[in-house]
Amino acid sequence: MTYPVDPAVLRVHAEVVEVFRAGTGDLAGVCRAARDRLAGLPGLDAREPRSWSSYRLVTADALTLLGYLRETGVETSEPASFRALLIDVLRYLYEAEQPALGVLPARFLHQDWTARLGASHAATVDVAERLAACLFALGETEQSRPLFEEVLRLRTRVRGADDPATLLAACNLGACLALDQVHDAALRLTEDTAERCERLLGADHETTLLAIANLAATLSALGAHDRVLALRRDVLARRRRISGEDSVLTLRAEAGVADTLHELGQHEAARALNAALLPRFERVAGRDHSGTRRTRARLEQNLRALGRDEEADEVGGKPRF
To answer: Could you write out the DSSP letters of every residue in 11-30?
Structure first.
């Protein structure tokens, strides 16, 4: 489904275009004016597909402007609202499954903000986290893991071990360790982080839900599927209450439950859940979203496990003769 672009985004896009069209020979001044227009945009949730049409336009403007800012030497680090916008753009590229587009701008911003603001400045650490996330999504754990470790170290030193941003950094590192198959270290970190998040942030905090989901993924790799199912059902119940039935976060939580049911041999229950989940993923996130593709693949897998190969072929798009 294609969602409409936010009117405020359309207005600011038109203003940025006009700034460049009417610009004089002072390119640096034009860049500052365009930067300040973009900095005034309202915040949108980069995790939700409803915002992605708006973010596509914002991202095109922001990345084009970054090239001019780099050429003219105009600060990318000021004002603070522009820094926040760039972080949101990088988060959008990760969430919308375009991490490759985020790596180069994130590297540049990390270098630029380290020089201008310092390595331990909150914005510099935030953009390091975004760079690590993009690399992680590309499977580049050899590059992402040291960045996640550095983000956790800096946030612990500057903010303290119990700060929400520090706990988020611990979540991210735990996920990276699990993907790297460093199972013992991943389990220790994800168990500790989940317990601390629930105690310090509360059961319904976003980072708490992420921490529990990461713990479930770590335990799944270790084969503890009964415990995983309980954790994932708990996360799903909280997600439904907090985010609503049609949030992509809720759909991901349902997908986790379906995956675990299949691992436990409960193929019919997994099939029923995936069959109901597939059209909802398509409607909310689109046919090409990874959640949609994985749900279709899981449904095909469920059907084959049940001996329903003709239905599996139809779901998988295989021709029948």
So the answer is: HHHHHHHHHHHT--S-HHHH
Cβ atoms of 189 and 173 within 8 Å: the answer is yes
Separation of alpha carbons 198 and 248, rounded Å = 22
Question: Whole-model pTM above 0.85?
Answer: yes
Query: Model confidence over 20-64: pLDDT tens digits?
Result: 988 777 899 999 999 999 999 988 899 888 899 999 999 999 999
Q: Is 114 part of a structural domain of the chain?
A: no
Structure tokens that stand for 71 in this block: 């050429």
| 73 lies in some domain | yes
Of 101, 118, 149, the domain-final residue: 101
Boundaries of domain holding 37: 1-101
Give the integer Cα–Cα distance in Å for 146 and 135: 11
Tell me, what's the pLDDT at 1? Answer: 60
Any residues with CB less than 8 A from the CB of 188 and at least 6 apart, and which? none
Task: Look at the chain and report how many structural domains it folds into.
Answer: 2
